[in-house]
Amino acid sequence: MSRFSEVRPPDVDYSATSLRPAWSSLPSSLHDALAVALGIQITAVSAPVSSGFTGGFAARARLSDGREVFIKAAPDAGHAYGAYQREAEVVPQLPKPVRAPAIIATASASAEGGRWFAVVSEWVPARMPGAPWTDADFAVVTAACEEMADALCPSPLSGLRVFADLVGDDIIVPAQIIAGERPLPAGLQEWVPRVLPEVAELAAAGPQVLTGDTAMHSDLRPDNILIDGDGACWVVDWNWLTLGPRWVDWVGLLPLAQHHGIDTFAAVQDNPLTADVPRDDIDVLIAVIAAYMMKNADSPPPPGCTPALREHQRLSAWTFLDWLAVRRGW
What we know:
By secondary structure, this protein is an alpha+beta fold. Helix content is 37%, strand content 16%. The strands form 3 sheets. Strands 1-2-3-5-4 form a 5-stranded antiparallel beta sheet, with helices on both faces.
């Protein structure tokens, strides 16, 4: 197991992964469009938040009536442009038991170089869990995942693509590495080449196993979760919503929590989301995400994303493979 290896996974600080522009650098036309959309002036804007992996603008703002909101904005040349549009579309359709900051307004504007889109949501004073995971935070987030699964099963949203479409051909990454068609990412456990055939076999079963009628967040990680002062759990960044098994979002949190010392192996046996799920089905999900994270891990980040994205991929691949290693007896 990894604790005996000289190679260590990266230590990713999910509160400091982004490189975002300042409010003053956004086009004045977008400033004006936001004031019109809100029907009120923006009087102050904080420094951009430092979580996330994109270069989209994201910061708390104060309105002239004293309210605080959260503004995200991006140009059409970047990944965040479509992500923010999708979030603005999805969040109003989520049922009430799902705590997601409400969308207040959206705005578009033309500027030199292209179009901009902004979405304004309610500001939730809260903190990120998982830095590292604690038993208390894990319990709060687990309860929220159970509530979300109940509220989103069956999916109240129509037209969602299935989870297998999100990961796409990434399920064949382990097989491609075995065949010499792509390199094994650097910095993984030394035993990974030995177990890749089993990882490949598990991942290949993804499209058959990971089906269901639940609307899933599909990108749940510490920086997409907030815990407010009352202990309520909020989930943000809903742009990857897909259809699949009701247990996927919660199980996707377990490997990193285990890496931080939480006994997730006992949790997965006892939790109502997974107690009746075939053991191999859970391992298929973990293998699929490990394969997804191994793809392009040594390449430069895509346009509009920060280098921390690749460190996140490497940490995720490591912890997901470690989790599988215990369960499969590698």
